[in-house]
Specification:
The protein is mainly beta and 184 residues long. The chain is 10% helix and 43% strand. Strands 1, 2, 3, 4, 5, 6, 7, 8, 9 and 10 form a ten-stranded mixed beta sheet that branches.
């Protein structure tokens, strides 16, 4: 009997159990740094914030920052409402409303309509895009859409094509004009 007990305790030590017998879970993919996705200034990694490490910013409450991340090789279709930030690393075909920011990674594709405050495009956007504050197309970004924006920045290599309209606060927006623009 003694040898059976010693084998059992050896298995426990190598099976992902803590010394107290509680299971030890591997880190979640959302806790791993995502290449190409920058965290907003003043936020820390979820792991550090969750662990309450000294010197780290406290974790935001669930209602303070509502972020939806569509990971690589994930497809999502439908309607997205009431998120603060949408991060697209995979493929999204949707209507996006009541969202403040969209961030499309190099591997990301968004097809549909989005009415947001700020957009940062490193991947592809196709459809209708209204950026009430700022549209930033990075060097790897491609936008083929009906676009309305207040401010725009296109890095060298970034591409914008479709109907384009500038939003002016307090003034009537000009009629959309069709054209192609490439940052070179």
């Amino acid at each position: 009997m003694a040898s059976d007990n010693s084998r059992f305790s050896t298995r426990q030590q190598g099976s992902g159990l803590s010394p107290g017998g509680a299971p030890v879970l591997p880190s979640r993919p959302s806790e791993v740094a995502r290449p190409g996705i920058e965290r907003p200034p003043g936020t820390s990694s979820p792991t550090a914030a969750h662990a309450g490490l000294p010197g780290e910013a406290p974790r935001r409450s669930e209602t303070a920052q509502r972020t939806l991340i569509v990971g690589r090789e994930i497809g999502l279709s439908g309607e997205i409402t009431s998120c603060d930030r949408l991060v697209v690393e995979g493929s999204v075909q949707a209507n996006l409303a009541n969202c403040r920011e969209i961030d499309i990674a190099e591997s990301g594709l968004f097809k549909g309509s989005a009415s947001i405050d700020e957009a940062e495009i490193r991947g592809r956007f196709e459809g209708t895009l209204i950026a009430r504050k700022r549209l930033h197309i990075r060097s790897t970004g491609k936008v083929a859409a009906t676009v309305s924006y207040a401010q725009i920045e296109i890095e060298a290599g970034g591409q914008l094509s479709g109907a384009i309209e500038v939003l002016s606060p307090g003034a009537t927006a000009p009629a959309p004009r069709t054209g192609n623009s490439q940052g070179n």
